[in-house]
Amino acid sequence: MPRKPCCKRVEALPEARYFKPRGIPLSQLEEVVLGFEELEALRLAHLEGLYQQEAAERMGVSRATFGRVLEAAHRKVSRALVEGWALRIEGGSFKVEAPEPLEA
């Protein structure tokens, strides 16, 4: 029996949750779903520039789990861009929690 997915920490939900190629009707597009925790992994690694260990700590998961989540996110976003699919952001196993303040 597979393990229950662990609940990952996400700092905020995105305002925009759907992206599609311009000029193609939605009814003609394939779609890929990116989980909120996958988007958070992309944000921490690429926008904040954190190393995987630091990003994993922020999400409350192991470094290996963070690496798997990030790899899945890369595959999904790459497929959407290369294949011209729509990208919907929803779901996953997560909790919204602001980062802990830094101690002075």
Tell me what the structure shows.
The chain is globular and about 50 Å long. With 104 residues, the chain is of the alpha/beta class. Helices cover 39% and strands 15% of the residues. The protein starts with 7 loop residues before the first strand and ends in an 8-residue tail after the last strand. The strands form two sheets. The chain has a three-stranded mixed sheet. Strands 1-5 form a two-stranded parallel ribbon.
**Spatial sequence of strands, sheet with the most strands:** 2-4-3
Give unreliable regions as ranges. Answer: none
- List how many beta strands DSSP finds: 5
The averaged pLDDT comes out at 89
Topology:
Blueprint: E1 8-10, E2 18-19, E3 31-34, H1 36-47, H2 52-59, H3 63-83, E4 86-89, E5 94-96
Helix pairs in contact: 1-2, 1-3, 2-3
Highlighted features:
single chain, 104 residues, alpha/beta, Arc Repressor Mutant, subunit A, three-stranded mixed beta sheet, two-stranded parallel ribbon, 39% helix
In short:
The protein is 39% helix and 15% strand. It is an alpha/beta fold. Helix 1 packs antiparallel against helix 2 and helix 1 packs across helix 3.
